[in-house]
Amino acid sequence: MLASSRRRLALSAAALLMGVVAAGCSNTNERMRSALHAVTPYKVEVVQGNVVTKEQVDQLRAGMSRQQVRELLGTPLLADIFHANRWDYVFTIKRQGVEPQQRRLTVFFSGETLERFDGDTMPSEEEFVAGLDARQFSGKVPVLEATEDQLKKHEGKADAPVQGDASRSLAPLPPSYPPLESR
């Protein structure tokens, strides 16, 4: 009888130990799952095409030459030989955690001059820059120009020698770069 009660006690202890181990494993599995959900793989930002802003579109005028349009908007993403009188400017950006953006502008020519253009409503440069940072909710773009007071404060500092530079002397540059391949 003593042996059977020891056996029951040992089985009860083993069952209790297995229950504790199983409970510990389920907590560990839950912790592992939550940790894996917190870690996301890096997704590369994909930016394709030309950024065309409202300010650029406002400068387009019928009668402009192809060269003037290219200087204003850049090289088109699509210039098809089968549609020689049409240039397509397409801009797409895909970023992690942000809805993908796509904008299109099509420019139509009659011979060598701009006839018309059609496309999506383009954001201003300020709106585009503000929309780049998904974490930024203020929508305000910092001032990118220095005031007169800020310029006066730094006047003459660019020409003044920095302390400690007198001891350093720069090696003269070679008259030309060596050839990439020698034959």
UniProtKB/TrEMBL annotation:
The keyword Membrane applies. Its main location: membrane. Pfam families: BamE (PF04355). One of its GO terms (molecular function) is protein-macromolecule adaptor activity. Residues 172-183 have a biased composition (Pro residues). GO terms for biological process: Gram-negative-bacterium-type cell outer membrane assembly; protein insertion into membrane. Residues 143-183 are annotated as: Disordered. Keywords: Cell outer membrane, Lipoprotein, Membrane, Palmitate, Signal. It is found in: Cell outer membrane. It is a lipid-anchor. Part of the Bam complex. Belongs to the BamE family. This is Outer membrane protein assembly factor BamE. It comes from Xenophilus arseniciresistens.
